[in-house]
Amino acid sequence: MAGPISRALRRAALATVLVAAGMPAFAQDTTGQSATQIAAGQAVGEAVLIPNRVIYPGEIIEPASLKQVTLIPGKHKPDGMATRSEELQGKVAKRTLLPGRYIPATAIRDAWLVAQGASVQVYFTAGALTISAAGVTLEPGAAGDQIKIRNIDSGKIISGTVMTDGTIKVGAS
């Protein structure tokens, strides 16, 4: 049975998570400043990227939909927020991203490398032995994701890892 202190801690943790997910960026706009001015320290604070328009789920995050701002001196970006171009390049929004707000790292994903229902080559390798088969993906996946595939010949459903070339690697089960 949870005591009143335990319930209070859970409520406080939930409130913190809810506030951080929709936290506005305390920043000043640096779009009018050149990169040399920002680098020279004329814009004091940490430079971050935030959406300049609503980005909908499934939409690829493009540089044109982001705005660079400089945080107010003394403010730092919260942990778990993606604010650099390397973190956002080619990613897809998992949920709606609002303008002027930080982008939670949990709200973005890699673009799908294989789509659901796509024909793929499935490989099993053990030492010098390599077995290949044709399959159909039952779910989409990015490189490194574990997905389910239906073997076209046998009809069996197997799991495998999406490789960077779009093939699927399966292991011994």
How is this fold's topology laid out?
Blueprint: H1 4-21, E1 27-29, H2 35-39, E2 47-51, E3 66-71, E4 81-82, H3 85-88, E5 91-93, E6 103-104, E7 108-110, E8 119-126, E9 129-137, E10 146-151, E11 157-162, E12 168-170
Parallel strand pairs: 8-12
Antiparallel strand pairs: 1-3, 2-3, 4-6, 5-7, 8-9, 9-10, 10-11, 11-12
Describe the structure concisely for a colleague.
By secondary structure, the protein is α+β, with helices and mostly antiparallel strands. The protein is 16% helix and 32% strand.
Question: Could you characterize the architecture of this molecule?
Answer:
With 173 residues, the protein is α+β, with helices and mostly antiparallel strands. It has helices spanning 4-21, 35-39, 85-88, and strands spanning 27-29, 47-51, 66-71, 81-82, 91-93, 103-104, 108-110, 119-126, 129-137, 146-151, 157-162, 168-170. The strands form 4 sheets. A 5-stranded mixed beta barrel has the order 8-9-10-11-12. The chain starts with a helix and ends with a strand. The model is unreliable at 17-21 and 32-43 (pLDDT under 50).
Please give a handful of descriptors for the protein shown.
cell projection; single chain; Flagella basal body P-ring formation protein FlgA; bacterial flagellum biogenesis; alpha+beta; 173 residues; 3 helices; three-stranded antiparallel sheet; flagellum; elongated; five-stranded mixed beta barrel; 16% helix
